[in-house]
């Protein structure tokens, strides 16, 4: 994951300081890309311990179509707490758009079920796209996440908002467009999450995982992460060998995976680095 450390340096060196919605302030660049060959190892950051249970739990939660934090909290995962209402609601975020995109005539589109079906039946397709960017449900930027949810909108606009797959020579590759990316806290999570999703869909479609390509819009470091004990501490560290992902079972569908099916082997990271999250 040397490419991640190089990207931290790129943002520090080439970024412009900008105000942002949260009021924290960021240093940001616009338009970057990382590529991960999933055949050489699983891209889980080794220069700090990443909370993989949180990554896997969040993905299983998205895949189930759930948009309420109650299930995540019951698993001990608290990464979405700050944006939820008192009942745990987040509005129609990823899970809703992926599994139940509402159409004007009252139907619900299960984009992920249709995707798996399309990969199986038309692997040459150039239309293997899933989007969470539903303009009808976007939050109003001047309102709090909770007020948006109470008004029936998403708590946060989708950050990882569109992804596409390609099948070539028996391998499944995935490219994500992430419009806004918190490089220290969110991005390591997002890389692991989409790499895991690619493995799961590949298994369901009798393919091997290929590449994960991560394309960024506004890629930023929050100014309160640019400190000796956070970003600069990580830059002092040397990357270690990547772990491997083992899928221990092949469930009947993409929507039947459980924590026990997903195992990371050989993960030997540097210690975790705590950092404040911008809400
Ligand atoms: N500013 C911001 N950055 C994000 O990455 C982000 C948001 N907001 N809002 C929505 C989700 C929530 N995500 C999050 C939220 C928290 C952590 C976080 O605090 N991670 C810690 C470990 C947390 C734990 O152990 O409970 C970390 O060190 O990675 C990561 C991703 C990603 N998203
Ligand atoms: O999966 C995620 C979700 C969120 N983020 C980050 C990116 C931004 O720092 C904030 C969202 O703020 P906006 O004003 O809506 O852009 O959350 C992430 O990196 N990954």
UniProtKB/TrEMBL annotation:
- The record's active-site residues are 159 (nucleophile)
The entry's (6R)-5,10-methylene-5,6,7,8-tetrahydrofolate-binding residues are 182, 278
The record's CDD domains line, in alphabetical order, gives: TS_Pyrimidine_HMase
Major localization listed first in the record, in broad terms: cytoplasm
Q: Name one GO molecular function term.
A: thymidylate synthase activity
Tell me the keywords, alphabetical order.
Cytoplasm, Methyltransferase, Nucleotide biosynthesis, Transferase
**UniProt cross-references to Pfam families, sorted A to Z:** Thymidylat_synt
The UniProt record lists the EC number as: 2.1.1.45
One GO BP annotation is: dTTP biosynthetic process
Q: Which GO terms describe its cellular component?
A: cytosol
* Compartmental location: Cytoplasm
Q: Where is the Thymidylate synthase/dCMP hydroxymethylase domain?
A: 3-279
Which SUPFAM superfamilies does this UniProt record tie to the protein? Thymidylate synthase/dCMP hydroxymethylase
Which positions in this protein are listed as binding dUMP? 21, 126-127, 179-182, 190, 220-222
Q: Which reaction does it catalyse?
A: dUMP + (6R)-5,10-methylene-5,6,7,8-tetrahydrofolate = 7,8-dihydrofolate + dTMP
Pathway listed for it?
Pyrimidine metabolism; dTTP biosynthesis
HAMAP family according to UniProt? Thymidy_synth_bact (MF_00008)
Subunit structure, per the record? Homodimer.
Q: Which family does it belong to?
A: Belongs to the thymidylate synthase family. Bacterial-type ThyA subfamily.
Quote the function comment for this protein.
Catalyzes the reductive methylation of 2'-deoxyuridine-5'-monophosphate (dUMP) to 2'-deoxythymidine-5'-monophosphate (dTMP) while utilizing 5,10-methylenetetrahydrofolate (mTHF) as the methyl donor and reductant in the reaction, yielding dihydrofolate (DHF) as a by-product. This enzymatic reaction provides an intracellular de novo source of dTMP, an essential precursor for DNA biosynthesis.
- What name goes with this protein? Thymidylate synthase
Originating species: Thermochromatium tepidum ATCC 43061
The taxonomy runs: Bacteria, Pseudomonadati, Pseudomonadota, Gammaproteobacteria, Chromatiales
Gene name in the database record: thyA
């Amino acid at each position: 994951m040397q490419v991640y450390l190089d990207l931290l340096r790129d943002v520090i060196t080439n970024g412009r300081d900008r105000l942002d919605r949260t009021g924290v302030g960021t240093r940001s660049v616009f338009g970057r890309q990382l590529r991960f060959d999933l055949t050489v190892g699983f891209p889980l950051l080794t220069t700090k311990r990443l909370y993989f249970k949180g990554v896997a739990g969040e993905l299983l939660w998205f895949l189930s179509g759930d948009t309420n934090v109650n299930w995540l909290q019951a698993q001990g995962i608290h990464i979405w707490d700050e944006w939820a209402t008192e009942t745990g609601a987040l509005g129609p975020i990823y899970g809703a758009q992926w599994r139940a995109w509402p159409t004007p005539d009252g139907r619900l589109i299960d984009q992920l079920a249709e995707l798996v079906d399309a990969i199986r039946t038309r692997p040459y397709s150039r239309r293997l796209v899933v989007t969470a960017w539903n303009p009808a449900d976007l939050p109003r930027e001047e309102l709090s996440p909770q007020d948006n949810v109470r008004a029936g909108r998403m708590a946060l606009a989708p950050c990882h908002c569109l992804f596409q797959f390609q099948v070539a020579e028996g391998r499944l590759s995935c490219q994500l467009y992430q419009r806004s990316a918190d490089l220290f806290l969110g991005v390591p999570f997002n890389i692991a999450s989409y790499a895991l999703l690619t493995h799961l869909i590949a298994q369901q479609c009798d393919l091997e995982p290929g590449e994960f390509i991560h394309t960024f819009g506004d890629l930023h470091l929050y100014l309160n992460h640019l400190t000796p004990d956070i970003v600069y501490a990580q830059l002092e560290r040397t990357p270690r060998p990547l772990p491997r992902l083992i899928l221990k079972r092949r469930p009947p569908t993409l929507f039947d995976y459980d924590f026990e099916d997903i195992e990371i082997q050989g993960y030997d990271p540097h210690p975790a680095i705590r950092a404040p999250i911008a809400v």
